[in-house]
Amino acid sequence: MLIECLPQFTPQSWEEIGHNILKNSGYENFESRKNAINTSIKILTDDNLKFIFNSNSVAEVPFQIKIPEVSNTVFSGVIDRIINYEESVLAIDFKSNFLVPKLVSEVPDGILQQMAVYFRSLEILYPEKKVDIAILWTETSNLMFLDNATLRNSLQSVLNT
Asked: Distance between CA atoms of 85 and 126, rounded to whole angstroms?
């Protein structure tokens, strides 16, 4: 939640704003708020992740789309971050799982299916661009890119349900 909204404010105000946002969202425990804020600030200031929050990126992007392979099903969701490059588009979803998979093969099926729907939806919305999907595991600040073959396999399991 915080890494979506803090970048619009000055870094000097992140801690205070973070406390206010979390307190208003039901985080009564000060230590819980402090931990969430520290995790968010660590991500936002990580030199390897700063590109996620630059001016090419858009936060909290809602979508609603019919995927041609599934005739009457409308898929909708909110993609945490989209970075639109000249020849490609990168969608990043933030996951706060306490147990973070080290390999793509260890990512839970439900998450892979969600990312597969994002992947196919963006292929439809941006037919002229290469689509990449990544998960930012907030617990470890690890950005995991998902390969297209895995996403297409996961999409098949969505389509077959």
From this structure: 11
Taking only the tens of pLDDT, the chain with its 161 residues reads 788 889 889 999 999 999 888 888 777 778 888 888 999 999 999 999 999 998 889 999 999 988 887 667 788 999 999 999 999 999 999 998 888 999 999 999 999 999 999 999 999 999 999 999 999 999 999 999 999 999 999 988 877 76
Q: Which CATH number fits domain 51-159: 2.102.10.10, 3.20.20.70, 3.40.50.300, 3.90.320.10?
A: 3.90.320.10
pTM of the predicted protein model: 0.89
Strands of the chain (E only): list them: 57-66, 74-84, 88-95, 130-137, 142-146
Map out the domains of the chain as residue ranges: 2-45, 51-159
